[in-house]
Amino acid sequence: MLYRLLLPGPIVDLSEVRVLEWHGAPGTQFNPGDLVVELDTHKAVVEMRASSKTVLRKILIEAGEWQRVGEPLAIVSDSADEPLPERAEDLPQSSATYEMV
Amino acid sequence: MSAEPVLTRRVFFREAICLAVRETLDAEPNAIVMGQDVGAFGGSYKEFYGLFERFGPARVRDTPVAEAAMVGLGVGAAAAGLRTLVSITYMDFVLLALDPLVNYAAKARFKTGGQIRVPMVVKLTAGAKGQGVAHSQSLESWLMSVPGLRVVAPSNVADAYGLMRSALQADGPVVYVDHKRLFPTSGPLNASGHEVPFGLAAVSRPGRHATIVTHSYMVCVALAACDQLAVSGIDCEVIDLRSLAPLDLATVCTSVSKTGALLTLEEGQVVCGIGAEIAYQVQARLGPVRVSRLGAVPAPVSSNPVLEAASLPDAARVADAVRRLLTEG
């Protein structure tokens, strides 16, 4: 199953954040609790961690780029061999945990 | 969190401040930062993030909760040859430090025939954002009338950087007023080293029918009001003062000469406010014009969010004030 990894929200006062660092390249498998990506906000770093076993497939917003809250950051999947679709818009949302640090 | 905001052209408001401070500390070994939580914590709004690690505790110094002592030390250190940036998170608490700021920092050059200069920046965060009567005030008009003090207040990322650069180049005390509601904003920051000179206002939005003169976060409110007014065909010009002392009356008067109507807008009180000063100065130069001023209602800012919102100008109230100015003024 493929998913869109969305930028979680709402974040108080904030409409856009900047991707600070991806902790893996496409193909990297994450286990529950693994750090996937760190986000720079106006006041803190937000960590997004995998909530289940998941594979990073395609990064949509690279480090240093900005994205609006609620919009996708990447495409992820349950296993590494599922083919990527032409259109990502129709994919369901992935659930990831995230916390301010 | 990025310690290298220079790598991206779009930055958060806090990063613009941080970059200007960092560049100054890099260039000037005598420059230091002092304040509560400016050290390992990185500043109350993370606007000093990374400076403690880069420059160490001798140059990025956490202080006790003692504003009079903080500014007093800042004045003395600046007079003795350092360049100091003193950060007081809530502008309300500068009241504890008015004696060293007003009686020493602002007057040292005059008292000593120019022999002692006080290159000190006092950075204050103004504005209401849910924190109640004594953490929400906008008191910059109180400081505008002190000879020897310069007062600046950015409304956007580029000016946050450029005004801090200029403040940290100045040879006398500068009060740098930012705003709680500006910290979540981001925007383009073009050239490193870009300075915004004091006493130079900016036209944030050109318009024909009325001039709104304002500063800091109220620029955002004014621009939102302009969008509302544009729907009904009213085209307003917005002047962002950027510098409150000195004031750029030439830019204001050029605009009012064109539009013939002036609304002053501030988050603080209107009695003896910035608008009162501008309204007088503009009419002394241009003769009678339609003028109105808008600010907070004469009440403390409540910690109740409904009452807080009720006490301050918002886009709808600004738009109403412009309509009244044009129909009744």
Written description of the protein model:
The complex is a heterodimer of chains A (101) and B (329). Chain A is an all-beta fold and 101 residues long. Chain A has strands at residues 2-6, 16-22, 29-30, 35-40, 45-50, 54-59, 66-68, 72-77, 96-100. In chain A, 0% of the residues lie in helices and 46% in strands. Chain A starts with a strand and ends with a strand. Chain B has 329 residues and is an alpha/beta fold. Chain B folds into two domains: 5-188, Rossmann fold, CATH 3.40.50; 202-328, Rossmann fold (3-Layer(aba) Sandwich), CATH 3.40.50.920. Chain B is globular and about 60 Å long. The termini of chain B are far apart. Chain A binds chain B through residues 13-14, 16, 18, 20, 40-45, 64, 66, and chain B through 1-2, 7-8, 10, 12-14, 45-46, 181, 183-186.
Chain-averaged pLDDT of chain B: 95
Q: Tell me the structural class of chain B.
A: alpha/beta
Unreliable stretches of chain A (pLDDT < 50, length at least 5) are none
Question: Could you tell me the number of beta strands of chain A?
Answer: 9
Classified by CATH, the class of the largest domain in chain B is Alpha Beta
Number of alpha- plus pi-helical segments of chain A: 0
Q: Which secondary-structure class do the elements of chain A indicate?
A: mainly beta
Biggest interface reads: A-B, 13 and 15 residues
- How many domain modules of chain B? 2
- Overall pLDDT score of chain A: 87
